[in-house]
Design brief:
about 140 residues, alpha+beta, 7-stranded antiparallel beta sheet, 3 helices, 7 strands, elongated
Length: about 140
């Protein structure tokens, strides 16, 4: 189930920089941590620089596997080395006060200094990407 990521597994992979596919260590070298992302370069200048992502990084063996098997990555993917990737926020269901129990509202993305974070049931961690370099997948071997 490619689009349904287990919340606890996502947060563990993001906090420890583990591969999003096999949960082993993500690939790292002098150019940074390896990320496999859906390609959105045509929508945003300098993408993915300064972008927050909820997809964990990847290891080299899983890049080829994921791009062959995942429908979203098969049609449009990019491999990126990232020098800096601090945890910057969460994605989750925001709640509001409502009588005896909080009332769920929309799902949203927010930084840790957002006031609403106290009312948010986080489903995933976000990392900010900076120092990004696009890598050709065939150069990873």
């Amino acid at each position: 189930m490619f689009g349904a990521v287990h919340s606890l597994r996502q947060r563990r992979a993001m906090s420890r920089l583990l591969c999003q596919i096999c949960a082993g260590p993500a690939d790292r070298n002098g150019d940074g941590v390896l990320w496999l992302l859906t390609d959105h370069r045509d929508e945003w200048d300098d993408w993915p620089e300064k972008m927050a992502v909820d997809e964990p990084p990847a290891c080299v063996p899983c890049v080829g596997l994921a791009t062959r098997l995942c429908p979203a990555l098969r049609s449009s993917s990019i491999v990126v080395r990232v020098r800096e990737c601090p945890v910057v926020g969460v994605r989750g269901r925001v709640h509001k006060p409502g009588g005896l129990l909080p009332v769920p509202t929309d799902e949203d993305v927010m930084s840790f200094d957002d006031r609403r974070i106290r009312w948010t049931l986080a489903s995933s961690l976000l990392r900010g990407l900076s120092g990004c370099t696009v890598v050709q997948a065939d150069e990873l071997a």
